Amino acid sequence: MANAYQEWNVVKKNKFGRKQERxxxxxxxxxxxxxxxxxxxxxxxxxxxxxxxxxxxxKLDILPTDPKTxxxxxxxxxxxxxxxYTCETTRECAEIVAKINYTRxxxx
Length: 108
Known about the structure:
It is built from one helix and seven strands, in the order E-E-E-E-E-E-E-H. It has one helix at residues 90-106; strands spanning 6-13, 19-26, 30-35, 51-53, 57-63, 66-76, 79-87. It is 16% helix and 48% strand. It has a seven-stranded antiparallel sheet, with helices on one face. The radius of gyration is 13 Å and the shape is globular. It is of the alpha+beta class and 108 residues long. The model has no long low-confidence stretch (mean pLDDT 88).
């Protein structure tokens, strides 16, 4: 099931500190970001990066101060930046991080 597509509602805090409600999707190779209410693969207007390869993740951590929030450090064209995602529950947060970590280990 690690390769199966799953999605969760999250609040993304972008690199400028702005909070945005998003659907966060993960499959065996990519992470997807879409506005809530849009279908995956549909028109992604307003979303700068609709998908990223899991291989571009440098670091992934659950915040010790908030177990519902995880931070991904991304590498993009030699630029490194952090994005925080807050889940509805601590269980969802742990599930997302475990799925991404499993996929990262599998393809090392």
